[in-house]
Structure formats: C-alpha cells, structure tokens
Amino acid sequence: MTKKDPESKNVKFEEALKRLEKIVEKLEAGDVPLEESIALYEEGISLFRQCSSKLEEAKKKVEILAKDASTGRMKTEPFSLGRGNGGAKPPSEDVSAGEGEPEEIPF
Question: What's phi and psi for 75, nearest 5 deg?
C-alpha cells in the first residue's frame, strides 16, 4: 500500500518533502481508490507538519554576523528578510546626519 512512517521524526526534510510531492501527484491524478486516498491524505498532512516544523526550526537557527560599529566586535543577530544584504539597514531604517532638516536646493 503506502509507505507509512511519517511519524518518525528522523526523516530528513528533503525525504519528507519528496514523499509529500509524490502523494500530491497521486491524489491530483485522481486514479487512487477512496480508502488509499484517505490514507495518503493523512500521511501527507503528517509530512506537511513535519516539513513545516523543520523549516521553523531552521529559520530560528539562521543568524547573520554583523559587526558592531561601536566596539568593532562581531555579534549575531536573528535572521530577518531585508537584512540579507550584509547586515545593512533597509532604507526606512537608515539614519542620516541631517534628518529632520529640509534639504538644500543646489541652485
């Protein structure tokens, strides 16, 4: 029947994802008997939860090294989108020296 062992937490992310993709293909094809479809669906939900959990764990582990300007030492910061450019601040967070003052017109 179906490969059942999605409850095993030792399954690698890539293996779980590959199995999940095969399950989706089978279910989308529509030529699987009802009982097998239900079993595949249950296995797919379990694999989906495992993959989501592993992705969340990986997300929490990813850190970016950033140099602290005041001390010159390296420090770690939690990963966030928008900081993927070497730790530079996004434009909205950039602080310029003359902030709050109107810009001079060059003529």
Answer: -140, 165
Residue written as tokens 């669906």?
41
What's the rounded Cα separation, in Å, for the pair 69 and 87? 12
Considering the entire predicted model, what is its pTM?
0.54
- Strand 63-67 relative to strand 74-78, pairing: antiparallel
Query: Residue 102: how many CA atoms within 13 Å on its side-chain side?
Result: 3
Query: What are the structural domains, with CATH classification, of the chain?
Result: 1-80 (1.10.287)
Residue type, 104: E
Alpha-carbon span 87 to 74, nearest angstrom: 12
pLDDT tens across 50-73, in order? 999 999 888 777 655 555 667 767
